[in-house]
Every structure is written in structure tokens, then in C-alpha cells.
Design brief:
The chain is of the alpha/beta class and 465 residues long. The chain is 32% helix and 20% strand. The strands form four sheets. Strands 7, 8, 9, 10, 11, 14, 15, 16 and 18 form a nine-stranded mixed β-sheet that branches. It comes from Sphingosinicella rhizophila. Pfam families: Peptidase_M17, Peptidase_M17_N_1.
Amino acid sequence: MKADLKTLLQPDKEQPATLLQLVDKNGFDGWLAAQPERIREAVNAQSFRGDGYQMAILPGEKADWSAVLGVANVDALSPWCLAKAAEVLPEGLYRVEGRGPGPAALGWLLAQYGFDRFKANPAPKGPRTLLTPEPAQIDETLLLAEAITLVRDLVNLPANHMGPADLEAVARSLAADCGAAVTVTSGRDLEKAFPLIAAVGAAATTDRSPRLIELEWGNPAHPRIALVGKGVCFDSGGLDIKNSAGMRLMKKDMGGAAHVLGLARLVMKTRLPVRLHLLVPAVENAVSGAALRPGDVVKSRKGITVEIGNTDAEGRLVLADALAKAVEDKAELILDFATLTGAARIALGPDLPALFANEDGLAEALAEAGKALSDPLWPMPLWTDYADMLASDIADIGNAAEGGMAGSITAALFLQKFVPENILWAHFDTFAWRASARPGRPKGGDALGLRAAWRLLSDRYALSD
């Protein structure tokens, strides 16, 4: 974690603070007409017209000042409408005039994120603290911001600082903080129990050896849920090696693991009444004489044999063994996150995770949660007619479809082979990265789909008052 986010969102006890007025395009003319001449002059001089993310500094009668911020809709604030101001305002205390910040408090916190761990002289920035008259919302907002910050930090770390052992250390630290138990399977035990995970990570050096990390928390009498995250800490492509451009961002290929670690933290810190099972298959897809080869056949934990058509389709392999374990332990709901396919990015771009679910109601609930929270998801079909694309002449299934069509769908269909119909399951094919900055969302690692998944979990397993 970076700086303590608790300092950035505080209860409003009428302490002195700079006022932030909010106005949208529709209400701008009326707002401006009601202002004194000195305010109108200042607004016009700064070309402020109430557009989203615009800001103008307003002079006070003496030495004080305030600011007016343009938002899309003053009656329905988004998480991001105060984020630009939080990035550029000077250090100090602020309050929104006449109202609470509502969902925009989250963006205020996240806008002050920065990843400068490896910079010798990071630019100093003092905290901009937002006061809120809604103290009941502070704890959950802080926990959400902390979860997203965790995801960003983990994804932003370079691969030489975030290998399988480092992911294990994060899980152990989280377990120690929240009173959970961790089990790690590696070495010969991994080869026997989770052969697909072992095969994908076989080429890595000893200090980056593959493992399955499991965390369990909660009352065994509560409903059992599983969170499964792809933890490929670097993906060279294996013997089907990527080109340099394709490899450049592969430190983020453990983004699925980062998402489920963030979600697990939310579950445990809020004491959601569930029995949590977190599974992270942590590997490096490297190249050596021990590497998985195209044409190899590996028997999965479930007993399904898999012919390797492409060693760069490794994420679905490690997820398959982890999903099989989650099923054996009788989870009633499984959510998996993975930076799984370039095909999802081609179809939907970087901002929209592809969502697959084996039950329409689950897909609809997640999509609606994403829409409500400005954390969008796009439901995609588990189109069974494409299952033949994964056929193998010598094994039960191939790991990669030929022809390059429907890549995200066939990857999801592969995973579905390892989850029975009687267990609710959703798969998030997420990018976990922002290629360009937006207010509150800097360039780099990010949580995409996490807030929607948390809304589903918190609604489905609601805490009693």
C-alpha cells in the first residue's frame, strides 16, 4: 500500500475548508447569472463553461478562494467527476458545497495514486483531503480504494519484483492481516496434483518455480465461494514466443491474480458472511529445455487430457487446474479473473472486460452492477457451436483454436469444461491496464471489473445490520 488513504477522506465536522461548487452544462447559465461580477469575470477569464472535468478558481471577498467544477450531471455524480480536481488542486482540506460527494469520493482517493517506487526523486505532492457529511460511507469507500490500489501496485511492479514467490508473499501477508490460512502446493506435489500448472511453469528458474496458492477464510457454515486469478507473472509465450512488442507489457499477465487478491481483501475486511476460497496459480511462462512444447499432451487435474496447440495459450491451462480444485471443494459460486486473450481486447478494447457466465441471471446482475458503478462489463456468449474449434485428434481437447476466430469465446469454452453446470461461474477476461491516463485513472495497472464483482458479492451475501 502507498500513503494512508484514511488521511484523504474525513468526516465533515465544520472545520475550515475550501469550497468546491459543482455545476453542469445545463445549469451553467443560471449559475453564472446568479454570481457577483467578480466571479463572472474570473469564470470568463478562465473559459469555464461547466464542461466535465473543467475547473475555475473563484476569488473570495478577502484572501480566501473557492473553486467551481464542471460535472456531467450534478444530480447523478459519477465516481470520477471530482478526480481531475483531486489531481491538480493544492494540498489542503476541501468540501463540496451543500452536499456530500457520494460516489465521487472514490475517484477523489484514486486520483491521488502514483507509482513512483523506483524513482530516485519522486515529485512531492501533499494530500488533498475531502470532507464528507456522509461518514457511514467512508469505511467502504476506503476499502474499495485500498483494494484498487493493491491491484494497481501489483500489476505495476516489474516482473523481477513480482514473481510467483512474491505473489505467495502477498497472499501470506493478506492472510496474516485478516486471519486466514494459506496453503501452497509446489515441486513434486504440484506435478502430481496440478499437472497443467506444473507444465506451464516448468521452464522457469528455481527461484521462480510454479505453485498453486490457496487462501481460506470464514465460517465453514457460510456459503462457499471461490475467487480464482491467473497469476502468470511474466509471459514470454513459451516456445511459441511473443515478439518484443507483444512481450513488453507481460508483467501485467498476473493481473487476474491481483484482482482476486483485492477482492479477497474486501471480503475479509468487511467480514462478508461467506467461506472464502482464493486460488492463484502462480507461474512464469519461460523458455528452456524444460518448456512445454507444441504438440505435448498433458493430463489435467480433472482427468481431461489437453493437447498443447499453442504454448502462448497458457493462462487457460493454469486456470483449469485451479477451477477443478475449486469445484472439488464445492464452491457454490466461482468468479475467475484473467488477462486471458488478445481477442477480447480486439473485440472490446482496453476498457471493457469480456464477461462470460454459465447462467443468464448472473451475467445480468454483474453487467447491471458494472453499469451502476461506472465499472463496465460486456457480456459475451458461451457459444457452444464453437466448441469444435478446440477439438484434438489425440486428446480430449486442444488448448487453442485453429484459425484465430472467436478467440475469447473459445478460451471461455475451454474453461467451462472444468466447471459443472450446477455451480454458478463467471469469467472476467480483463486487460488490467490503462494505456493512457484519465482523471482518477493513471496510465498503468488498474482494476477493471473488480467493483462490479464486489457489488454482486456484497448484494448476494449481504451483511446483516
